[in-house]
Amino acid sequence: MTTQEKSGANLLQDERYKTIDRTIKRLNRREDALLEVLNTAQEVFGYLPQPVLRYVAQQLHVPLSRVYGVATFYHMFTFEPLGEHTCVVCAGTACHVKGSERIIHTLSEAFDVRPGGTTADKTFSLTVTRCLGSCGLAPVVVVDGQVHGKATPESVLAQVTHILSLAEMLKEGAR
Ligand code: FES
Known about the structure:
By secondary structure, the chain is of the alpha+beta class. 54% of the residues lie in helices and 10% in strands.
């Protein structure tokens, strides 16, 4: 078996690739399925590594450049593994008008992380996304999977600080 065949066999055994395949099949390999397939890929991998982007391009029969184009256009996609804790800040129009930019700036400064990035110690990721569909609660943030509406820079900073110090204490306790 050649190296290429071996890596192909590994891909087929990986449940995560099977999940991507199921989404592709469900959408009947439509070209406009790209966005949804990338969403699925990010859900199962947690981010979009390069081999996955290549795989999606191959399976959908679209150029890799197009896959990159879509993946880089939408803020919700990330090319790095996420940290242990995450804060997703909505930067859609309603949230932007209500000050989401200040929340992003505050977190970015406080934890020394760029928007869309992860701290050097991999404990925290700051993600910026488009409309989360809860505009009535703007500005909206999602901290470790919990949705918070009418957020302020102070409230989000306090919450993330609390979560990170708790995590640090648990780590210390385990040592
Ligand atoms: S713009 Fe943020 S939830 Fe819609």
